[in-house]
Amino acid sequence: MTSIKKITFLFLIIVPLLFAQKTHPNLLLTKSDVVKIKESLNKYDLFTKSFNDAKKALDEALSKPIDVPYPKDAGGGYTHEKHKQNYNEMHIAGFMYQVTGDEKYARFIKSMLDKYADMYPGLKAHPEAKIESGGRLFWQTLNETVWLTHTIQAYDCIYDWLSSEERAKYEKNIFIPMARFFMIDCEEEFDRIHNHGTWTVTAVGMTGLVLGIDEYVQKALYGSKLDKHGGFIPQLDQLFSPDGYYTEGGYYVRYALWPFFIFAEALANNLTDLNIYDYRDQIIKKAFYSALQMTYSNGAFMPINDALKEKTWLSPEIILGLNFVYERYGQDKQLLSLARQHNRVSLTGAGLLVAKGFQETEVIPDFEWKSVQYTDGGDGLQGGVGIFRHGNKDDMQTLLFKYTSHGLSHGHYDKLHFLFYDQGEEIIQDYGAARFINIEQKFGGRYLPENKSYALQTIAHNTLVVDEKSHFNGKQEVSEKYHPEKYLYDSSNPDFQYMSAVDKDAYPGVKMQRTMILVNDKNLYRPVVIDVLKVLSEKEHQYDLPYYYMGHFISSSFEYNPFTSERNLLGKKNGYQHLWKEAEGITKDGFIITWWNKNRFYSLINSADSTAKIIFTRIGGSDPNFNLRNEPGILIRKNAKDYTFATVIEPHGVFNPTLEFTKDSYSTIQKVSVVYDSEEYTVVKINGNKGINWTLMLSNINADRNKEHEIEYGGIKYKWQGPIFLQK
Amino acid sequence: MTSIKKITFLFLIIVPLLFAQKTHPNLLLTKSDVVKIKESLNKYDLFTKSFNDAKKALDEALSKPIDVPYPKDAGGGYTHEKHKQNYNEMHIAGFMYQVTGDEKYARFIKSMLDKYADMYPGLKAHPEAKIESGGRLFWQTLNETVWLTHTIQAYDCIYDWLSSEERAKYEKNIFIPMARFFMIDCEEEFDRIHNHGTWTVTAVGMTGLVLGIDEYVQKALYGSKLDKHGGFIPQLDQLFSPDGYYTEGGYYVRYALWPFFIFAEALANNLTDLNIYDYRDQIIKKAFYSALQMTYSNGAFMPINDALKEKTWLSPEIILGLNFVYERYGQDKQLLSLARQHNRVSLTGAGLLVAKGFQETEVIPDFEWKSVQYTDGGDGLQGGVGIFRHGNKDDMQTLLFKYTSHGLSHGHYDKLHFLFYDQGEEIIQDYGAARFINIEQKFGGRYLPENKSYALQTIAHNTLVVDEKSHFNGKQEVSEKYHPEKYLYDSSNPDFQYMSAVDKDAYPGVKMQRTMILVNDKNLYRPVVIDVLKVLSEKEHQYDLPYYYMGHFISSSFEYNPFTSERNLLGKKNGYQHLWKEAEGITKDGFIITWWNKNRFYSLINSADSTAKIIFTRIGGSDPNFNLRNEPGILIRKNAKDYTFATVIEPHGVFNPTLEFTKDSYSTIQKVSVVYDSEEYTVVKINGNKGINWTLMLSNINADRNKEHEIEYGGIKYKWQGPIFLQK
Predict the structure, then answer these.
(1) B571 to chain A: nearest residue by CA?
(2) Is the CB of A310 less than 8 angstroms away from the CB of B436?
(3) What pLDDT, in 10s, does the model give residues A409-446?
(4) Which residue of the set A24, A126, A342, A410 is catalytic?
(5) Range list for CATH 2.70.98.70 in chain A
(6) Cβ within 8 Å of A, B 23-82
(7) Which of chain A's ends, N or C, has fewer CB atoms near its CB within 10 Å?
(8) Cα separation of A676 and A500, whole Å?
(9) Contact between chains at A594 and B436 (C-beta distance less than 8 A)
(10) CATH of B2-20+65-238, one of 3.60.40.10, 3.40.1260.20, 2.40.160.20, 1.50.10.100
(11) CB proximity A254 to B under 8 Å
(12) What average pLDDT does chain A have?
């Protein structure tokens, strides 16, 4: 169905593409935006402030000598940061020239372009270009495409002010060779269905729009061979699932959305018949909202795959995207609550509209985080993520369960992995990426070697590791062929939300099924997580299930042997070499580990018997440059064929050091046990104080809500309807 | 001089002590307070809110059955927390009865007292009383004195409402035996010049005031033998220095001030001629302000000695103290800025006054942190602390240099130790105490064994360790005999603040002198710390100087050998057993270590030559119960007789992950070297980029500001005036 649509669509838009931009500027800032902004410049505080801040910073920059240094440094280094600064300043100067009419801004851009026009034609590969997609101005083409994307907008703003000779010079020395470098020399990057590809086609496409070169625009839309194996349209088709989930995850979608919005807006202003904002049932809108839903209550993107935890929705990419979404999709008032946090709008017509909305809206609704599920893959058939929430933003629990496909080059080997948040804090963490972005001493600010050797390996995640190997043996090309299957997702009852997914491919011959439930009960402080991970295998394996808890260890219910005077590594490879073994122990009949974080305690109550080993780990082994954070984990190790790990994570009690007040530092739930387990059914008992006496009944293979199940075991009859039932 | 004054004073006050409290209540809440509060109940929001919050919580408590359990648990356990809750509820109920006139509050107190009256006479030593000063209701008498201090106030509030038979019963069964238990059985505690002693005399003294037993009041003031070897007055004389510094430090003064304010207020209302608030040149006021100056910009008490880092000036003790200071010492408007943070006042006449002030003051000035020095010891002659500040509260540097006396039982072996803060963060930390207060699993919430084995040892601090032994060999009785001597302190020039102190006793035969300077320079992002630690010894020793930096290691200027696959301990005792050795290396000619914290980088630039060893450490060895935080340190080890460690700590650059912007991740200062060093003089060169070329000239033994110095070395003549000079 979709492919037929796309083909029809292709024919429809071929004709209107024969154009040349009639007016300048007409990319993100249009002539009519300029008129509106001039009229309203001091009317809306948020815009006025953003305008004044930008103008002040730019005027200060204008007072200093221009420097266009010969490219030398990688990320974080002087020449790298200077070229970034230059495009940003040119970009703002273009806007300022249009709005204030002050020619000093135009002259500034011209002076800078003159220097680039002198230097660029002589540039060879960047000296720090250690990767395939190396650039000329920057160590990676990625930064260079961002440079062009911004500089072409500045050029567009002073286009009419320049003489035709000047235009010819810049086009000949900079824009055309750079665009051709991206299209031809970096053809693979240009045609990549990946956020780097999006930046590349955006840079080239926008250059085409300004220069009136149809070829650039068409190739930007449909790929270097115009066959839709690359380009903006296939990226919109394939990088997002039908409900807007971006295959690389929440952290990268923030970044990836940036060029999507830039190019979409430029296309909307130039190729109106393309109706880009309506394309694929408003996929751009869906992508934006899914990005927001992938944040925790502090606005930080949940760090699945390669991700830096510092990143929040305060990022400039989100500011720009939010402004366009607000303008193009019906002025959703919820977005104004983010604009309040941003305390800034983009210098565009959309930014003006947000500032107006913010000023004129009396009651701004909070952004509403929801329990939500997203499918993965362009076809929506490649697994997905499920998210549960409980509570309001001041104290919100969030549980994210990941059963997506690989997620391109930034994907991790983390099938059926999960993250858990409470109190505004990570409680069960995802390590994120091993990277200190833009810090030159740390491997030039690039992804560190430990990103590959640890952070993306399975053992770095809260999921099953079989025989100390990563999923798909850590091979991306294999991992990309498979994805888990969703089995259940239901968040309709806020007191009993459940989801379940199955993976059969991460380890040949091993089937993993994980069911995660968020249960709210009046006898407990907060909802608890029930986690049932069922493994089926014909052969015996070593199963390792780690939980990377955040906080300070308080107590365990069993004796362990701590390694207090000498510490050794947990293993030799696949990420195990990065874990110190801090202690190990054997439990008799289930165990409890309790830790403390901020104002609460957390306990992990697990069903392991005496044949399992419990290992305390700490990240940081085999780390000569001290690149890793030294954080704790608890690992359950079991040798078995079929085995089910049943776990409850319970937040409990109060720790108030200001009032020196502590309550319930021991968990209410005291015991979790698997009382019945077959391929078809699993029954788990959960017992504790305050009358907690629960029985969880799972049908592992039949999701039919009306199906009645009955089993008898140990003289007890279990009877229920549907795939899952919790008897209290 | 002081002793003559004290004796005169004693005679003066003996007479007015012959009294019995005429009206009830008349402790912290007086009859006239009650009248004022009734009149103004809904006038001042802060008071109204505090009143309503307390009433709501209490009314809820009143709806539940009263429980006075038989004592069983230590801190954090049920019976412990319940008895704490009980005295708090009785205390508030007393107030509520007085203000609302509702007899249900009086009945509530009576019912509870009935149960205590039944139980208390039969109580023996508390089952968890593992220390000498064990109590009956609680595992330590400390909690029990707090119980009496609050309960006697509740009793005072319903005194007139009770029948004389009821009063006789409570006095006979509870108040008199408990007061006598404290005075007689716990005589040592009662007479202790220590915060536990203050609580004890407060409880007994207030009981005496209400019951009209002069003996209790006099002994509370002057000790169990009335000879001023114990009691409130000697505590005021000896626990505070003449400028108000409390010998245990900032964390404990917060707690210690609580009974001081409670008893002082009760005395002021009953023994007006005592003029307690004017006693010793208003020592109570000075103590309160010195406590506030001992906080960092987030309101947290700088954690010298045993201290929990979570404690801030939001603590209830500070709320109460602030209210009385505001009322009794001229209504300082600055205090209202703290009241805003508290968002609460005490339920007293003073609380009402603060709420009124807060409501009626249009512009509330911020609290002003200052560069300040305090002497230590009752006579002010036992060393002290020096504090430098730079910048406003949004981004304030603070440097604390500690050259105090031991600081009683919570003191650490940390002569010439320092702490450094920036950006609202600890940059060079004090570990504080090893304790999880009120968390039962963690050693009953008491100080952990690691507090003694690590946290109070010298190696846990940023100061010199000789031959791997703690100062005074870790013997408190020896340490208490000595203190360092201040040599310099001058904060008059905000761009060049300096202090210096000398210790000759911590290690026999070793003289240590440390000079710390905060230098602001226009070529640097922020002021830098210059730290010159000079050691003189006739014999050769091993000198270890650790710096516990907070943040993530970024880079070092030298090669080191990292222990990546096996980790061992740094030593066997005196705290060394708690440090893992992570790496070690040798530098050639000075070294730089850089780390990252929040939005900035920090570098430590040191003068060590190739005969010194640099060791990377991490806290957490020999820690079977995982009681310690696993934090990094850098240790400079040098075998020598005389040696001078010269170090600069430089904050630099910008790390902005939201904008993906990094600047100056390398330090500006590149080299620190000692170019001349004798007993008399030390000259240090500090060189770097941006034209930094400084020479620091120190006269180590002559503090005369007018004295001219001249030395010649290596063909260069150094000439300066006064004890310290920085030539730029």
Answers:
(1) A565
(2) no
(3) 999 999 999 999 999 999 999 999 999 998 999 998 99
(4) A410
(5) 372-663
(6) 75-76, 81
(7) N
(8) 18
(9) no
(10) 1.50.10.100
(11) no
(12) 95
Active-site hit among B44, B155, B245, B252: B252
Within 13 Å, how many C-alpha atoms sit on residue B46's CB side? 26
CB A286 within 8 A of CB A277: no
> Which pair of tokens denotes residue A262?
């830039």
Give the class (CATH, top level) of B373-727. mainly beta
Structural element, H or E, at residue B234? helix B232-238
Q: Is A566 on the interface with B (CB under 8 A)?
A: yes
- Was domain A2-283 assigned CATH 1.50.10.100? yes
pLDDT at position A289: 97
Name which of B53, B83, B438 to mutate to probe chain A: the one with the most chain A Cβ atoms within 10 A of its Cβ. Answer: B438
The reply to whether A618 touches chain B by the CB within 8 Å rule is yes
Q: Are residues A441 and B555, on separate chains, in Cβ contact within 8 Å?
A: yes
Chain B segment 398-457 residues within 8 A of A by beta carbon are 436-442, 445
According to CATH, where is 1.50.10.100 located in chain A? 2-283
For B59-98, the pLDDT digits (tens) are: 999 999 999 999 999 887 899 999 999 999 999 999 999 9
Joined tokens for residue B721 = 């005036």
Beta-sheet strand order (sheet of A589-597): A485-490, A496-503, A510-519, A528-537, A643-652, A600-609, A589-597, A552-556
ipTM for the predicted complex:
0.91
Q: How far is B77 from chain A (nearest CA, A)?
A: 8
What is the CATH architecture assignment of A372-663? Answer: Distorted Sandwich (2.70)
Q: pLDDT digit string (tens) for A517-554?
A: 999 999 999 999 999 999 999 999 999 999 999 999 99
Q: Which residues of B touch A551 (CB under 8 A)?
A: none
pTM over 0.90: yes
B552 catalytic per annotation: no
Q: Nearest chain A residue to B307 by CA: give it.
A: A657
The residue in chain B having the minimum alpha-carbon distance to the alpha carbon of residue A632 is B630
Alpha carbon separation from A492 to A497, A500, A699 (Å, rounded)? 7, 15, 19
Say whether A410 is catalytic. yes
Average pLDDT over residues A332-355: 97
Own/partner pairs for B487-496, CB < 8 Å, 24+ apart? B487/B513, B487/B515, B487/B703, B487/B723, B488/B515, B488/B703, B488/B723, B488/B724, B489/B373, B489/B386, B491/B371, B491/B372, B491/B373, B491/B388, B494/B371, B494/B390, B494/B520, B495/B519, B495/B520, B495/B521, B495/B527, B496/B520, B496/B726
Give CA–CA dist A144/A62, Å, rounded. 23
- Cis ω for the linkage preceding B624 (within 30 of 0): no
- Average confidence score pLDDT of chain B: 95
Q: How confident is the model at residue B575 (pLDDT cuts 50, 70, 90)?
A: very high
